Amino acid sequence: MEAVLTHLRGAIERGEYAIGDKLPSEAELCRQLEVSRPVLREALRALQVMGLTQSRTGKGTFVIANAVEDPTFGDYAASDLLEVRRHVEIPVAGYAAVRRTPENLDHLAHLLDRMERETDTTAWVAMDTLFHLAVAEAAQNPVFRRVIEEIRDALARQSAFLNELGGRREQSNREHRAIVEALIDGSEHDAVEAMSHHLDRVETTLTDIVRSPRTTSSTEGGPEA
């Protein structure tokens, strides 16, 4: 999928598909790139998240921009989502460190163990959002959980995007482990630092994906299947 995405993104950024142009049909792109339809559809979804294309029901996929600026996850732009996460999840981690119950810690430890064993990206992404909800619950303020619930779909979409294109899963597991260890220790400072580091790495990976055109791998024969 990443090879297909790189190829199509490069073609758009080089102007081979101009703003307003319709991309070839899925069947045609599958033939050109020699990939399966599920792989192609993943790449097309990623192009939409990046803000390069728009799918119009019954009409096809159209180019709406020639450069990636601010990906959108569900109803929210990545920059807006990250800004809110910094203002909410960092202090929430601090509150959770001093307010968590034994039940909260057991739940988080169980989730973390499952995430570290999970190999399926879709299942891992689902648990990723549950992890952040569990940290909010440990802060013992229902408003915090409600905020995370509101952005839950966007968090899942962002998590899937970063894992598909940024290989974030193992690194994220380590960052989650540091957060849980800080909560176990009851250290507000360490919990705040661990969550800050986690969100820093999310931002860095997202920025790398957005800023790196990675068009040099496009070849005359297209990407390998």
UniProtKB/TrEMBL annotation:
Gene3D superfamilies on file = GntR ligand-binding domain-like, Winged helix-like DNA-binding domain superfamily/Winged helix DNA-binding domain
Sorted keywords for this record are: DNA-binding, Transcription, Transcription regulation
Fetch the PROSITE patterns from UniProt: HTH_GNTR
- Tell me the Pfam families matching this sequence: FCD, GntR
Q: Which domain of life is it from?
A: Bacteria
InterPro entries (alphabetical):
GntR_C (IPR011711), TF_FadR/GntR_C (IPR008920), Tscrpt_reg_HTH_GntR (IPR000524), WH-like_DNA-bd_sf (IPR036388), WH_DNA-bd_sf (IPR036390)
Q: Which residues form the HTH gntR-type domain?
A: 1-66
User: Which SMART domains does this UniProt record tie to the protein?
Assistant: FCD, HTH_GNTR
Q: Which SUPFAM superfamilies match?
A: GntR ligand-binding domain-like, Winged helix' DNA-binding domain
Instruction: Indicate the secretion signal residues.
Output: none
Protein name per its UniProtKB record? FadR/GntR family transcriptional regulator
Q: Which organism is it from?
A: Streptomyces ossamyceticus
